[in-house]
From TrEMBL, chain A:
Species lineage: Bacteria, Pseudomonadati, Pseudomonadota, Alphaproteobacteria, Rhodobacterales
Alphabetical UniProt keywords: Flavoprotein, FMN, Membrane, Phosphoprotein, Translocase, Transmembrane, Transmembrane helix, Transport
Entry GO terms, CC: plasma membrane
Transmembrane portions of the chain: 12-29, 104-124, 131-157, 163-186, 198-216, 222-249
Recorded superkingdom: Bacteria
Pfam families: NQR2_RnfD_RnfE
Entry protein name: RnfABCDGE type electron transport complex subunit D
Ligase among keywords: no
A Gene Ontology biological process term: transmembrane transport
Record carries keyword Repressor: no
Signal sequence, start to end: none
InterPro entries named among the record's database cross-references: NqrB/RnfD
TrEMBL record, chain B:
Xref: Pfam families: Rnf-Nqr
A GO biological process held by the record: sodium ion transport
Main localisation: membrane
Key word Transcription regulation present: no
Annotated TM spans: 42-61, 73-94, 100-121, 133-154, 174-197
Gene Ontology MF: a single term: oxidoreductase activity, acting on NAD(P)H, quinone or similar compound as acceptor
Domain of life: Bacteria
Membrane topology: Multi-pass membrane protein
Keywords carried by this UniProt record: Cell inner membrane, Cell membrane, Ion transport, Membrane, NAD, Nitrogen fixation, Sodium, Sodium transport, Translocase, Transmembrane, Transmembrane helix, Transport, Ubiquinone
Organism: Sagittula salina
Name assigned to this protein: NADH:ubiquinone reductase (Na(+)-transporting) subunit D
Length: 258, 220
């Protein structure tokens, strides 16, 4: 249905609506709105540049990216460093590939990884419990409207929930992991695209989170979650490839060579 | 002005036929030794000298190298020159030699060196072969020095060990980008350089392998 209601911008708007509860709780509990404004200005500027230079339509998904960066970026970075990180993430992570919908990794993930590796001295943010719990309504809205992949969230819930029940994931890591799951991992563009691969993708994210929590000394919960999100989204195309190969092999077994 | 063929042989590999940026040869060492400008410069000189001398020697005996063992002969010649250079570095530039660690030795297997001797020096007389080798060495050096200068400048706020931007940890204002000292940043910088050069010289870009599907959003 290419000419109906569902364009790229509908998806972006519904994704934004799904992030509504999370954003509201974050602002309510003292979120830094100045960072959100800065992220919006920088992303908007680069979208304008690429629209003028390469005729790439700007997308409302910039709002989602800006929200993720404002919520998760390390604190007290200053305007210059934050702008540098956002520039790198948005240009190298999204715009050079042709804009939102054609990117391989989430621009916010690239930004956060860049800032984390480039300026390791700055502290990562933590989340109050209500902000973390707001990830649940966000995931629900996303899944019901169909803009967030159910499999990714389901896979993460199965593995992450199991780990939490056995005590492998304490509450701060669980909260940060949930927020990052909704903001970065359950992205309709950069998560896996086939159903089995989506379950594995979500499970892989949660498993990496457990691994980092048990083996990475001195890392903040958000830092672990962002690293897990980066690796999970890099693995997504591989998982899709494996799912397709399995499907082809099953067809071949059923119908013979052709 | 009519340019002599020797001049164009020398200058073509600088930008238009740059071995690193166009053919993506020899990037292993280009990524590994560029954390500071000093190591990048040393590596550039070492590789250029080895490449030029090896091209000269191989071109001299090109009619006597048996076809079947030509690669072994070339590698023996290159390796001998590399050992000489390595000993010279260890004798007079011990500190730089330690900073470069194995990468001087790895010039032996640098595909840029073997590529030029195999593709050019084996078929051309010594003067031309050496000019071509010198040009390719300078092209490699150019990329290495640009990346090394950028990484040292943004990663340490210094150039050739001299502080340019006062560091925040020593009372200045500049917070170094630690990412610049890690290997991925060399990939990013090399990619950006390739992008910039191919935007300026579109004839360097490869033909696209896939055509994107037509855009459905446009027609409403």
């Amino acid at each position: 249905m290419t000419k109906g209601l569902w364009t790229r911008e509908t998806v972006a708007l519904l994704l934004l609506a799904a992030h509504g509860p999370l954003a509201l709780m974050w602002v309510w509990y003292g979120g830094a709105l100045s960072r959100l404004v800065l992220a919006l200005v920088v992303i908007g500027g680069w979208q304008l540049v690429f629209m003028l230079a390469r005729a790439q339509a700007p997308s409302l998904a910039a709002l989602v990216t800006a929200l993720a960066i404002a919520m998760l970026a390390p604190q007290d970075l200053g305007v210059l460093r934050l702008s540098l990180g956002i520039t790198f993430g948005v240009v190298m992570g999204e715009l050079v590939f042709g804009g939102w919908g054609r990117n391989v990794v989430h621009p916010a993930t690239v930004t956060l990884a860049f800032l984390g590796f480039g300026f390791p001295a700055f502290a990562w943010p933590g989340f109050d419990a209500p902000v973390g719990w707001a990830a649940i309504p966000a995931a629900l809205i996303g899944c019901v409207t169909g803009v967030m992949p159910v499999g990714v969230i389901g896979g993460a819930l199965v593995v992450g929930g199991g780990a939490a029940l056995t005590g492998a994931l304490p509450e701060p890591v669980l909260l940060a992991g949930g927020v990052v799951l909704v903001l970065l991992v359950a992205d309709p563009v950069t998560s896996a695209a086939t159903t089995p691969a989506r379950w594995v993708n979500g499970g892989l994210y949660a498993a990496l989170l457990v691994l980092f929590h048990s083996g990475w000394d001195g890392a903040a919960p958000v830092q672990m979650a962002v690293a897990a999100a980066l690796l999970a989204s890099l693995a997504a195309p591989l998982l899709d490839e494996a799912a397709l190969a399995l499907w082809v092999a099953r067809r071949r077994r059923r119908h013979g060579q052709s | 002005m009519v340019r002599s063929p020797a001049w164009s042989t020398l200058t073509a590999p600088l930008v238009h036929q740059n071995p690193v940026m166009l053919q993506i040869l020899g990037i292993c060492s280009a990524l590994a030794v560029t954390t500071t400008l000093a190591t990048a410069l040393t590596m550039s000189v070492a590789l250029t000298v080895v490449l030029t001398l090896a091209a000269g020697v191989i071109s001299l005996i090109r009619r006597h190298i048996p076809e079947t063992i030509r690669l072994i002969v070339q590698i023996v010649i290159i390796a001998s020159l590399v050992i000489v250079i390595d000993q010279v570095l260890q004798a007079w530039f011990a500190e730089l030699s330690r900073a470069l660690s194995v990468y001087v030795g790895l010039i032996t297997t640098n595909c840029l060196v073997l590529g030029r001797t195999e593709a050019f020096a084996r078929h051309n007389p010594p003067p031309r072969a050496m000019i071509d080798a010198l040009g390719n060495g300078l092209g490699y050096s150019l990329v290495l020095c640009v990346i090394g200068a950028l990484r040292e400048f943004f990663g340490k706020g210094a150039l050739l060990g001299q502080t340019v931007l006062p560091l925040a940890s020593e009372g200045g204002w500049f917070t170094p980008l630690s990412l610049m000292l890690l290997a991925p940043s060399a990939f990013f910088l090399l990619g950006l350089m390739v992008w910039a050069v191919r935007s300026l010289l579109p004839e360097q870009a490869e033909a696209p392998q896939h055509a994107p599907p037509p855009r459905a959003e446009v027609e409403r």
